[in-house]
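[step 3/7] inverse_fold.run input=structure_tokens len=144
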């Protein structure tokens, strides 16, 4: 499965590598039925943002407005092939990755985000159950 990581060369607040994308991919495929993003330690962070496909840039929460240019450059507002995950620490962007929608289905978490285009999760709320949906060929996330 291809994992696409996003890099924004000119972003002062953002150091990027593909650790988050690799972490999500590996954790899902490990077969343990868990995706514990809270255990991700490659960067300092306290909040996870999950941006759904086709999210209009104008609908981003205020906390993400300083990063709307980087988010817009992913094309998230125009395609349904991936989700954008952002990690922030005290409001500063520390990691950003594109996770293929064909790998993980975050949609069932909508019940916990009020159906908003952007799910916001504090670090201690970023542990999810994973179930492989053979018909869709992807992992479905639910709350424990």
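[step 3/7] decode complete -> sequence:
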């Amino acid at each position: 499965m291809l994992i696409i990581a996003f890099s924004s060369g000119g972003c002062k607040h953002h150091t990027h590598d593909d650790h988050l994308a690799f972490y999500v991919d590996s954790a899902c495929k490990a077969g343990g039925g868990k995706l514990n993003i809270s255990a991700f330690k490659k960067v300092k962070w306290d909040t996870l943002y999950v941006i759904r496909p086709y999210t209009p840039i104008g609908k981003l929460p205020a906390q993400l407005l300083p990063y709307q240019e980087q988010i817009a450059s992913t094309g998230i507002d125009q395609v349904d092939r991936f989700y954008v995950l952002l990690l922030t620490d005290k409001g500063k962007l520390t990691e950003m990755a594109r996770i293929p929608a064909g790998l993980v289905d975050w949609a069932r978490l909508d019940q916990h985000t009020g159906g908003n285009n952007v799910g916001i999760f504090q670090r201690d709320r970023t542990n999810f159950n994973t179930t492989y949906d053979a018909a869709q060929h992807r992992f479905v996330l639910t709350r424990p």
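[step 4/7] annotate
The two ends are 25 Å apart (CA to CA).
Strands lie at 4-5, 34-36, 47-51, 82-89, 92-100, 104-105, 118-122, 127-133, 138-142.
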